[in-house]
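During the no-cost extension, the postdoctoral fellow (Dr. R.K.) reprocessed legacy sequence entries with the updated structure-token encoder. One reprocessed record is reproduced below for audit purposes.
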Amino acid sequence: MRTAFLKLFRQSPFPALIKHADVIREVAPVFRLAFLAYLDGDMDDFEKYHNQVIVSESQGDSIKRNLRGHLPRGVLLPMDKFQLFAYIREQDKVLDSVQDVLHWLSYKITHVPDELVDDLLLLVDRSIYSLKAIHPMVSAAESYFDSFSEETRVTVKETITQIREYEFQSDQVERKLLSDLFAYPFKDALSAFHLIRLVEHIGNISNHAENAADMMRAMIAR
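Re-encoded structure tokens follow.
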């Protein structure tokens, strides 16, 4: 009886969250390679990396479903269950957003004006910073919920602040790119639309990372 009671306290969502964050971290360099292949017009390589991201996104979905579907009824969590589920959803949307970018690129081959390439790659890199920052945040949160020490709580808050900073930087680049795209004399409206929506899709990666960070902040709040 005592063993069954103690098991209620031993359930932790963090091994699964870290496994999911591993997938996000591993997809980051693949995302950049896919983007570079697209800019170079190498659609064979682009599709190769695109397909790798599709597989990774499917793995992430599986981890999310298993975590949400196999959390024992009555288990005592160190945070509110609804906050946890909201957090899982946003962390998974980070991965979904990477796939959305590559799906969108696959619909049309559009030439990116040379003068916009650097800022577009800068936006991609800022989104990759956000992708890589998820794992340290989840890892720090696991340590916090194991110890509930103020020191580890401060570490979690620092990782959250870093993700917010990356989102701010991403937003600045996104706004400049959108302004430049609207001002650019495109020969056809479809190309303009494709690139404008592309920039918005890339920006969503950092947006969802920040949403996840905000929900993590709520979970560690006292």
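The radius of gyration is 19 Å. Residues 1-10 have pLDDT under 50 and may be disordered. The remaining legacy entries will be reprocessed before the final report is submitted.
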